Amino acid sequence: MCAGLIGFRSYRFVRDRDPIGFYGFGAAAHLLAQVARYEGKRFYAFVRPGDEAAKAFAEALGAAWAGYSDEEPPEPLEGAIVFAPVGALVPKALKDLEPGGCWFSGGST
User: Could you tell me which CATH number the domain at 2-105 has?
Assistant: First the structure.
């Protein structure tokens, strides 16, 4: 239930954006992936470098792209949510946003 509450609280800030980046593909992001896909949104999943299982899981849930958190997305993002408690991901997410994009911290960064 916690993941759903954290995820929904975060998602409502970027819900009107497309594509959306999820940084840290854990419990909350995997729930949001299903919501985003249902709503017809493209989402990109950023996982810890080397975490092939999380990357494959994101792809199985319909990610338009899944890659490592140190990689560039295929295009600038309109929205981003940082779930991973890794402070370095905040400037990375901001860099990946297009001008005027919206980001939200869904975890303790």
Answer: 3.40.50.720
The answer to whether residue 5 scores a pLDDT higher than 80 is: no
d(CA 41, CA 89): 22
pLDDT digits (tens, 9 = 90+) for 67-89: 999 999 999 999 999 887 778 88
**SS3 track for 78-100:** EEEEECCCCCCHHHHHHHHEEEE
Query: Across the chain, which distance is largest between two alpha carbons, in Å?
Result: 34
* Domain locations along the chain: 2-105
Q: What is the pTM of this model?
A: 0.87
Cα(23)–Cα(6) distance, rounded to whole angstroms? 14
Contacting residues for 35 by C-beta, under 8 A, at least 6 apart: 7, 11
